[in-house]
C-alpha cells in the first residue's frame, strides 16, 4: 500500500536519501466522512481519536522511520533542532531550540516552534498548514534537512532566515521547495500585512496588487522567493498551487473552523 494519489511529492532535485511529501484532504476510507477530511492537526476541533488514527495511517503508509516531530506552531521564528526520536512508547530525548531571543534549551516532545532542522537520518520533520506556506529544505549532498511554517506573520518576521541560520549547509548548496499555500488570486489582505513586508524591503511591493481601498492581493510565494534569494538560496522549486481553490487541499480561509491541517514532511534515509 502506498500513499494516496492526491498526496504531493515535491518536484525538486533532492538527493536520493531525502524523502518528502505533503498530505492532502484524501486519506483512508475511515477519514472521508469527517468534515475535517484527512486532518493531522490536534488544535482545529477535530476528534482526537480520529487525529491519532490519521497520524497512525500516515506513519504506516509512508513506512516512516520514526514518529514525525510535530511542532506547536505560533507564527513565530523559533527553530527546533532535532535528534533521533524513537517510536511511541520507547522514550523521548530532549531537544534544543533557537530563535526570537531564545538560547538553546531543553524542550518537550512538541516544542513551541515554527521551523525545525536536523542532520540525523531517521528524524522526520513535520510542518502543518491550511493556507500558510510550508517550506522544505535539503542540502545538495543530502547531509541536512529543514522545514518551516511561513504564514505572513512568520514570513515577515524572518522565519526563513532563522531556519537557514540554524543550518550548517552553505546557502548556495541548499535546495528549497515551496509547498501548497493560498495563492495571490485568493488572498486579499489589509494594509498592515503590506506594511510589515515593506518595512523590511521596499522590493516587497511587487508581491502586492491593489484590489480596493486599503486592501491588496498578497503573493506569499513571491515574498518567500524574495526572502530566500536575499538569503543566498539559488535553487527554489514549487510554489504553483492554491489551497483556497483546490478542493483536495485544506484551506482555513475556505473552511474556517472546519478546516483540517495538511502535513509537509521531510526526512533523511540512513
Structural class comes to alpha+beta
Give the strand order of the largest sheet, numbering strands 1, 2, ... along the chain.
Answer: 4-3-5-8-7-9-13
Helical residue percent band:
10-25%
Radius of gyration of CA atoms, rounded to a whole number: 18 Å
User: Secondary-structure element sequence?
Assistant: EHEEEEEEEHHEEHEEHEHE
Tell me the domain tally. Answer: 1
Please indicate the percent range of residues in DSSP E strands (runs of 2 or more).
15-25%
CATH topology-level fold name: CNF1/YfiH-like putative cysteine hydrolases
Outline, from the CA principal axes?
globular
Give the C-level CATH assignment: Alpha Beta
Beginning-to-end CA distance, first to last residue: 22 Å
Description:
By secondary structure, the chain is α+β, with helices and mostly antiparallel strands. It has a single domain, classed as CNF1/YfiH-like putative cysteine hydrolases, CATH 3.60.140. 19% of the residues lie in helices and 24% in strands. It has six helices and 14 strands. It has helices at 48-62, 152-157, 159-165, 191-198, 220-231, 252-255; strands at residues 18-22, 68-69, 79-81, 96-98, 115-118, 124-129, 133-139, 145-150, 174-178, 188-190, 208-212, 215-218, 235-238, 262-268. The strands form three sheets. A seven-stranded mixed beta sheet has the order 4-3-5-8-7-9-13. A four-stranded mixed beta sheet has the order 1-14-6-2, with no helix packed on it. It has a three-stranded antiparallel beta sheet with strand order 10-12-11. A hairpin with a 5-residue loop joins β7 (133-139) and β8 (145-150). It is globular, with a radius of gyration of 18 Å. Mean pLDDT is 91; it is low at 85-94 and 100-108.
